[in-house]
Amino acid sequence: MEKPMLSRREMLKMMGVTAAGTILAACVPSAPAPTAVPTHEAEIQLPEGVEIEGFTPTMSNPPEKVKLVYWWGNNYEPALQFTHEIIARFTLAYPNVEVEPVAGQNCDAFVTAAAAGTPPDLFHTWDCVERMGNWAVRDMIIPLDEYISGSGFPIDDYIQGVMDCCIMDGKVWGMVDTGGVFLLWTRPGDFAEIGKEATDLPADTDELWDWVDQLTTQDSSGNIERLGMTLPTWVWPRFAWISSFGGSLWDAEKGEPTPDHPGVLEALNDLVAQVNYYGVDELDTWSASIGSQGGEQNPWLAGNLTMQVEGDWTGQQIFDFFPDWEFGTDYGAAAPPPAPASKQHGDPAVTFWTWPFVIPAGTANPDWSWELLRFYLSTEYQVNVHSKFKEILVRESMMDDERLWWPAATVARDIVKDGRTLTTMMPMVPVAGEYTNLLGEAFDRIMHLAETPEEGMARVREETLQAMASSSE
Question: 217 and 331 share a domain?
Answer without folding.
Answer: yes
